[in-house]
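Format notes (please read before filing issues)

Several people have asked whether sequences and structure tokens are stored in separate files. They are not. Every record keeps both together, in the order shown below: the sequence lines, then the token lines. Line labels are part of the format and must not be stripped during preprocessing.
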Amino acid sequence: MDSDPRIVIAEDDPLLREGLALLLRAESIEVVATAGTPEAALAAIDEHKPNVAIFDVRMPPTHTDEGIRAAVEARRRQPGLAILVLSAYVEQSFATELLSDGVGRVGYLLKERVGRVEEFLDALHRVAAGGTAIDTEIVAQLFTRSHRDARLERLTPRERHVLALMAEGLGNSAIAKRLVVTEGAVHKHIRSIFAKLDLSPTDHVDRRVTAVLRYLEGATARAR
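Then the structure lines:
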């Protein structure tokens, strides 16, 4: 990570909440607070000023989207706060809200991924360092659904594959390794993606984050 992480965990399941805390502390990662409700999580974030917050999507009282709404509010109160969301289900809509500021620092993992410790920690590191980390299963489901967004339709199959890997949070070298191509080829694909999505290098946002956002926005629209 780019700095020593200080983490607040918001999870209503006490076993998972304490299990996450133990896992992170075993990796010498500081957990400054844990919370079982959105209100307690926001209070802890206000008090401790962490640089990463881990939120469950479905929290009390209705167990629908309280965790997402609390994550959005936490980001409003502390701009740039890295958010890693955990869910037992594929739910796309949260990502557009958290990515819409163009800052990044957002991850979305299925809870089953926590059991794969290396993958979970890798995602946490990527998010804390300013990137994105979208679960591979979520990306796969998004791309299997029909879509008619004109900008995304401009992309070739290979460019859409590269964009999917970008959404997972992979950097250029990791994408090159996954596709068995050179980094130069990946860089060329990404330049083409930016051009086809009308992302100018003069834009005052992270073009990589914005490209992923447009992809996720399209997925959310077609899921409605």
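For reference, the curators noted about this record: Strands lie at 6-10, 30-35, 52-56, 82-87, 106-110, 132-134. The two ends are 36 Å apart (CA to CA).
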